């Protein structure tokens, strides 16, 4: 399953399917993996690509011993539905969105 790529230069996880790329923008802060935005291109929407991407992100966070702070509504909803990753979820607290970055929208 772990077909995701950690594109550290762009601060995003990527999943390539059918010639398209779904991605999750992130920040790494003191043991946290902050997910700011998850997006799947129109051709992948409804295919489950964003969910497969989030599963890969959660597995990567677990491997690295990181907690996930989902600022993106999709990421938060995915983590809430997948209770097997509940131990990774950390509330937003004082972590806010990055100024100048695109706000999260539905994928």
Note down, in words, how this protein is organized.
- This protein is of the alpha+beta class and 107 residues long.
- The chain has a single domain (5-88), classed as Gcn5-related N-acetyltransferase (GNAT) (Aminopeptidase, 3-Layer(aba) Sandwich), CATH 3.40.630.30.
- Helix content is 23%, strand content 29%.
- A five-stranded mixed sheet has the order 1-2-3-4-5.
- The radius of gyration is 13 Å and the shape is globular.
* Helix/strand order: EEEEHEH
The percent range for strand residues is: 25-35%
CATH uppermost class: Alpha Beta
As a whole number of angstroms, the C-alpha radius of gyration is 13 Å
Distance between the termini: 20 Å
What is the secondary structure topology, with strand pairs?
Elements: E1 5-7, E2 12-17, E3 20-29, E4 32-39, H1 49-64, E5 67-70, H2 73-81
